[in-house]
């Protein structure tokens, strides 16, 4: 306990350095902006802005990039409530009741409770992160290659399990990501694989250009055909502070959302998006007046908004303590850290305490900044929303182009991004998801190394994965996740046939 | 969606076969000492099976009026293709013409040709955006964007 407090104190020293405060501020501001803007999520934003952090220390860079993620969770709610367009995926549910509240003239309290709920949940998640992080790091120090292998398998399976579309397609995409991770030099034998004598493939397929293509370029291409319609509420937003009655109704939703969000965030494959949906479902279930949901129930805003912020905080745990990203955003952040020469994992806390604790404490500060920043700036965000799409998309494209080029001042990265942009666009058309691909691409090399090391360790005996209890536990979880949907689908089919 | 699934399933099936073949050539090694192609050979096998599942399910759910279905219906293909061509040209020309010129041209093209805005609007916005992004990325963040033809200006 004393040690943790000492560490937090050290983190404060790092985080309040003027430069780091500035990067924290820039991060949450940009995060809120991309949260407000539909068609540009935190994943693409982090990928885009990564090259701008090359000139600063890894600590400042991480503080800023982390700020973009949790900042986006705040910003997303604003557009959901005022325009009925979620700025990013984690705010989709907020539209249901938030927009209805706004139509009834209660946009102010909706925005207010979203901001306060986000603040409470965000702070809760950071406190929990402070205590759970070191604990998990210690456990993870005991992990050998088989445990890492099985854990990554669970991570990828959870993500495919939770994918909104077909699970077969999601698994297929994870496979493709894994294959792409094999391009370049084999880390164990030093042999080049799948490079086909193309110079730019020797270093492998970069996560960042792929992410920019799949989440940035492809989004613009899809939006080019369908004009985004926006009907912004013209009424003035007033009374941002929720009344006592609003508080009484929503405080438990916020608490439930915070706890639920945090744990779903830690789960590999989980994160803010799932947390917000789960929270809405629970709030509707426990409410005495479930019929009010969808018609402007304030709990329907408070719960999910708290959950997505807590989920965003929780998602940092597997990344910082195990080196395993829980979702695509964390996958890109992992890629970013590795470019900065930082290897996240159980040793991070010891090797780079300034980065570990500095980032965590900066999140306390960032959450405070977001609360102060958000409420007064809402009118400005509404103005940002009025920027027409014909101006917005050329800008997004330009930022992608500059971002990809300045990764290594190499045109090959730009081409890679454009090719994956086309692929991503087609994937959307054909209903394939990009998230499992990115996650598998990031984890691929580690997955392969730990598989091959495990087999070398056990002299080719696959039972090493099930004879070690932690590894066995992970694999059982993965197997259940794969089997359960098949069984439930069978049941559905048989009931359909009976009908 | 069924026709689209069959097409994409077939694509991924061929892709998987190719990957497995290439991995086999790399060397699978043995279980004691897995080779460089080991994991990807088996990943290719699994993705091949998954793509077959996609194809088979789409064949089973074949809708009766499939003849009318087309993947390319309602696509605003021209606009997307034009934008993509301009992006590829941007990447091809950036090192030769330099950041300032290609960015200006790209914006004039997107605003003036694709979005059909009035020319003075397209040109002035393009000039403004080019100048601002240059200030942010080159001057403030020192991204070392290519100068290309304007190298001689040494700014």
Description:
The complex is a heterodimer of chains A (499) and B (155). Chain A has 499 residues and is an all-alpha fold. Chain A has one domain. The N and C termini of chain A lie far apart (60 Å). Chain A contains 21 helices and two strands. Chain A has a two-stranded antiparallel sheet with strand order 1-2. The model of chain A has no long low-confidence stretch (mean pLDDT 85). Chain A has helices at residues 2-15, 18-36, 42-49, 58-83, 92-103, 107-140, 145-162, 167-181, 207-225, 244-266, 272-286, 299-314, 316-322, 328-339, 348-351, 353-385, 389-408, 411-429, 435-457, 464-467, 469-498, and strands spanning 184-185, 192-193. Chain B has 155 residues and is an all-alpha fold. Chain B has two domains: 2-68; 77-153, no CATH class. Chain B is built from five helices and no strands. Chain B has helices at residues 2-26, 38-60, 77-97, 99-114, 119-140. At the A-B interface, helix 8, helix 9, helix 17, helix 18 and helix 19 of A face helix 1, helix 2, helix 3, helix 4 and helix 5 of B.
Topology:
The complex is a heterodimer of chains A (499) and B (155).
Chain A: H1 2-15, H2 18-36, H3 42-49, H4 58-83, H5 92-103, H6 107-140, H7 145-162, H8 167-181, E1 184-185, E2 192-193, H9 207-225, H10 244-266, H11 272-286, H12 299-314, H13 316-322, H14 328-339, H15 348-351, H16 353-385, H17 389-408, H18 411-429, H19 435-457, H20 464-467, H21 469-498
Antiparallel strand pairs in A: 1-2
Helix pairs in contact in A: 1-16, 2-4, 2-16, 3-4, 3-9, 3-14, 4-5, 4-6, 4-12, 4-14, 4-16, 5-6, 5-12, 6-10, 6-12, 6-13, 6-16, 7-8, 7-19, 7-21, 8-19, 9-17, 9-18, 10-11, 10-12, 11-12, 14-19, 17-18
Chain B: H1 2-26, H2 38-60, H3 77-97, H4 99-114, H5 119-140
Helix pairs in contact in B: 1-2, 3-4, 4-5
TL;DR of this structure?
Chain A is mostly helical and 499 residues long. Chain A has helices at residues 2-15, 18-36, 42-49, 58-83, 92-103, 107-140, 145-162, 167-181, 207-225, 244-266, 272-286, 299-314, 316-322, 328-339, 348-351, 353-385, 389-408, 411-429, 435-457, 464-467, 469-498, and strands at residues 184-185, 192-193.
């Amino acid at each position: 306990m004393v040690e943790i407090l000492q560490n937090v104190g050290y983190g404060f020293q790092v985080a309040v350095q003027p430069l780091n405060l500035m990067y924290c501020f820039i991060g949450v501001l940009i995060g809120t902006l991309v949260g407000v803007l539909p068609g540009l999520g935190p994943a693409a934003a982090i990928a885009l802005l990564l090259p701008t952090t090359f000139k600063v220390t890894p600590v400042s860079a991480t503080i800023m990039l982390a700020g973009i993620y949790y900042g986006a969770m705040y910003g997303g709610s604003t557009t959901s409530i005022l325009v009925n367009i979620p700025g990013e995926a984690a705010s989709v549910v907020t539209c249901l009741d938030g927009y209805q509240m706004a139509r009834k003239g209660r946009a102010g309290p909706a925005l207010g409770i979203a901001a306060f709920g986000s603040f409470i949940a965000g702070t809760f998640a950071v406190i929990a992160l402070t205590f759970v992080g070191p604990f998990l790091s210690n456990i993870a120090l005991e992990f050998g290659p088989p445990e890492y292998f099985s854990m990554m398998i669970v991570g990828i399976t959870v993500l495919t399990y939770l994918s909104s579309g077909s699970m077969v397609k999601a698994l297929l995409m994870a496979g493709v990501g894994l294959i792409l991770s094999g391009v370049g030099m084999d880390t164990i034998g030093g042999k080049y694989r799948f490079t086909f004598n193309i110079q730019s493939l020797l270093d492998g397929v970069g996560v960042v250009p792929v992410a920019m293509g799949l989440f940035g370029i492809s989004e613009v291409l899809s939006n080019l055909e369908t004009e985004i319609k926006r009907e912004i509420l013209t009424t003035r937003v007033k009374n941002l502070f929720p009344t006592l009655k609003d508080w009484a109704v929503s405080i438990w939703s916020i608490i439930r959302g915070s706890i639920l969000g945090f744990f779903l965030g830690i789960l590999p494959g989980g994160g803010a998006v799932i947390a917000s949906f789960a929270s809405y479902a629970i709030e509707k279930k426990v409410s005495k007046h479930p019929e009010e949901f969808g018609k402007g129930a304030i709990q329907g805003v408070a719960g999910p908004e708290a959950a997505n912020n807590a989920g965003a905080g929780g998602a940092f745990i597997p990344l910082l303590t195990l080196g395993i990203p829980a979702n695509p955003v964390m996958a890109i952040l992992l890629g970013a850290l590795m470019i900065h020469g930082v290897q996240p994992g159980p040793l991070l806390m010891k090797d780079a305490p300034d980065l570990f604790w500095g980032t965590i404490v900066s999140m306390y500060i960032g959450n405070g900044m977001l609360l102060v920043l958000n409420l007064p700036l809402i009118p400005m965000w509404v103005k940002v929303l009025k920027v027409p799409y014909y101006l917005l998309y050329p800008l997004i494209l330009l930022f992608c182009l500059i971002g990809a080029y300045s990764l290594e001042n190499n045109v090959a990265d730009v081409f890679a991004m454009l090719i994956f942009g086309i692929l991503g666009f087609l994937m959307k058309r054909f209903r394939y998801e990009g998230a499992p691909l990115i996650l598998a691409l990031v984890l691929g090399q580690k997955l392969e190394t730990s598989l091959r090391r495990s087999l070398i360790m056990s002299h080719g005996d696959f039972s090493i994965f099930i004879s070690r209890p932690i590894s066995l536990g992970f694999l059982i979880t993965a197997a259940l996740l794969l089997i359960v949907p098949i069984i439930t689908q069978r049941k559905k089919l048989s009931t359909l046939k009976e009908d | 969606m069924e026709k689209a699934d069959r097409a994409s399933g077939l694509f991924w099936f061929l892709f998987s076969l190719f990957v497995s073949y290439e991995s086999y050539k790399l060397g699978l090694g043995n279980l004691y000492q897995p080779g460089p192609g080991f994991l990807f050979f088996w990943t290719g096998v699994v993705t091949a099976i998954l793509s077959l599942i996609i194809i088979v399910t789409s064949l089973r759910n074949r809708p009766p009026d499939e003849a009318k279905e087309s993947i390319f219906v309602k696509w605003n293909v021209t606009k997307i293709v034009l934008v993509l061509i301009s992006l590829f040209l941007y990447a091809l020309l950036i090192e030769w013409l330099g950041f300032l010129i290609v960015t200006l041209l790209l914006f004039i093209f997107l605003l003036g040709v694709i979005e059909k805005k009035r020319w003075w609007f397209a040109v002035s916005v393009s000039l403004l955006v080019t100048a601002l992004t240059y200030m942010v990325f080159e001057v403030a963040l020192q991204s070392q964007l290519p100068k290309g033809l304007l190298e001689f200006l040494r700014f």
